[in-house]
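Long-time lurker, first post. I've been practising inverse folding by hand and with some scripts of my own, and I keep getting stuck on stretches where the structure tokens seem ambiguous. Below is the full token string for one chain I'm working on. Before anyone asks, I'm not after the true native sequence, just a reasonable design that respects the backbone. If someone could post their per-position residues I'd love to compare against what I wrote down in my notebook.
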């Protein structure tokens, strides 16, 4: 490819574009007009560029919270001001220093209309680089990288991972041979293929504070098919049983023999039993019994031909033991892959509908992040299994699965008295404390209007047994007249209906 020719053509094209955008009044909107729709900034970042905007109403630059949004204002660009009122205003653009060229497209919104502005700093150049150089390099710079495809997680847009031995980067979007999106499968890229791609770098900040280094909407320059690939595994999900056992990985190999690499961190529990020969070798692994949490290991298979090395990978999984824990024990545990089972009352939902749960052990709830199978609501009692994670230092359950939901129905005291006795149906009731019959166990009466109901036990939360059931009245300072909400079943004792084994939900002094 003749880069000298491309550079000359690009500069000539940009000269025509800049002139035409200054002179072509016909492209302007009546609601919002800009003096030019292309802004050029120097690489050294020492000079600014200014344009004028004439708006019929208030206006602002679109700036999404999503770091991957096409029109988000990049961190390297300073815009003053970012919004304004009707009339004519001046907008100043300034970029940080950058070598190699970069660009972005911005969007101004006004009176339901949109005006687009392209900002260019320097001239984009393509740099041959390693993954390590991409990771250390600046955003928006265009790189050409060659590496093995180690995993594909979206086959529509073409989102996958590329590793060249110096590091691994994410390919976020892959263009087809015609430069179009959403046609990744037409390229025929498979795990293990050695691929050369070209595209601009972007850094995506994850919720846990880490950064994903990406090349976005890449152009594929070359695909070298791997001479070794995984065809299938036995069992199909490549998962060894808890008590230990074998997993077989079947390969297709066109190279000279097969070598196997098990990461050092997994060699204490995973070993290789045998390696077959021929064009379709089978590799048998043995997993030791697992007394801890779920675990997995990425195994690498390699072959050579003509002095080149080709590889593919397979992930071996093993189920782990599940630790039954209270919320307090879960919070005190270290982060890791151990599986925990928690049960508690849903005390609230975050903005995305993830539940907070609380049990007898801790009055502060813990967040269950993105639980699979959760269809409950506030007040329901759920059992979940997941890992001990954290966000900003605060404990939360990650990768959770809901095992059980006990539906809790909110009713008035009067409605509660009409229900049938059942130890399996849960109700939430609220009333003013009318009398405390036993402060140790929280036996008390709730009253709402003319209805009075006996609560046999008011315990600090779900799962309380033995001494853990005692003294909530004193701990919370509950008094006659306080409004109390509890969860329990309806039973009858000596002809008197009651809330049985009440679970504290909240109270108002």
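-- Answer (accepted) --
I ran through it position by position. Result:
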């Amino acid at each position: 490819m003749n880069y000298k020719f491309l550079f000359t053509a690009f500069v000539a094209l940009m000269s025509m574009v800049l002139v035409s955008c200054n002179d072509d009044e016909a492209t302007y909107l009546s609601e919002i007009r800009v003096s030019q729709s292309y802004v050029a900034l120097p690489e050294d970042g020492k000079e600014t560029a200014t344009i004028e905007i004439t708006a019929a109403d208030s206006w602002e630059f679109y700036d999404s919270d999503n770091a991957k949004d096409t029109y988000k204002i990049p961190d390297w660009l300073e815009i003053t001001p970012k919004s304004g009122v009707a009339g004519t205003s001046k907008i100043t653009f300034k970029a940080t220093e950058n070598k190699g060229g970069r660009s972005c497209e911005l969007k101004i919104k006004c009176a339901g209309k949109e005006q687009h502005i392209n900002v260019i700093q320097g001239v984009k150049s393509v740099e041959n680089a390693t993954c390590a150089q991409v990771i250390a390099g600046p955003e928006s710079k265009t790189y050409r990288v060659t590496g093995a495809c180690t995993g594909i997680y979206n086959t529509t847009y073409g989102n996958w991972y590329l590793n060249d031995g110096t590091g691994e980067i994410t390919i976020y979007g892959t263009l087809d041979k015609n430069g179009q999106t959403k046609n990744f499968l037409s390229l025929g890229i498979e795990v293990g293929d050695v691929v050369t791609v070209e595209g601009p770098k972007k850094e995506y900040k994850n919720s846990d504070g880490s950064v994903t280094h990406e090349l976005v909407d890449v152009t594929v320059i070359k695909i070298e098919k791997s001479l070794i690939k995984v065809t299938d595994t036995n069992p199909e999900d490549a998962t060894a049983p808890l008590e230990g056992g074998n997993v077989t990985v079947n390969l297709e190999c066109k190279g000279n023999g097969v070598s196997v690499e098990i990461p050092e961190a997994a060699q204490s529990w995973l070993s290789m039993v045998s390696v077959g020969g021929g064009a379709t070798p089978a590799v048998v692994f043995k997993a030791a019994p697992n007394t801890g949490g779920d675990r997995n290991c990425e195994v690498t298979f390699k072959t050579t031909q003509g002095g080149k090395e080709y590889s593919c990978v397979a992930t071996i999984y093993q189920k782990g033991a599940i630790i039954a824990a209270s919320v307090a024990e879960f919070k005190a545990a270290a982060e890791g892959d151990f599986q925990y089972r928690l049960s508690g009352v849903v005390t609230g939902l975050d903005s995305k509908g993830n539940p907070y749960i609380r049990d007898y052990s801790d009055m502060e709830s813990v967040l269950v992040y993105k639980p699979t199978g959760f269809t409950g609501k506030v007040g329901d009692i759920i059992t979940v299994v997941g890992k001990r994670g954290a966000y900003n230092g605060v404990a939360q359950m990650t990768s959770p699965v809901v095992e059980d939901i006990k539906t809790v129905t909110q009713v008035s005291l009067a409605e509660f008295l009409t229900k049938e006795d059942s130890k399996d149906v849960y109700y939430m009731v609220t009333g003013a404390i009318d009398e405390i019959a036993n402060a140790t166990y929280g036996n008390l009466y709730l009253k709402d209007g003319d209805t009075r109901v006996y609560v046999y036990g008011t315990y600090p939360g779900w799962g309380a047994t033995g001494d853990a059931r005692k003294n909530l009245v004193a701990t919370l300072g509950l008094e006659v007249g306080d409004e109390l909400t509890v969860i329990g079943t309806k039973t009858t004792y000596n002809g008197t209906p009651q809330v049985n084994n009440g679970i504290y939900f909240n109270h108002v002094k």
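A couple of notes from the structure itself: The chain has five domains: 3-121, 126-224, 228-318, 322-406, 409-508. Confidence is low (pLDDT under 50) at residues 1-27. Happy to go over any region you disagree with.
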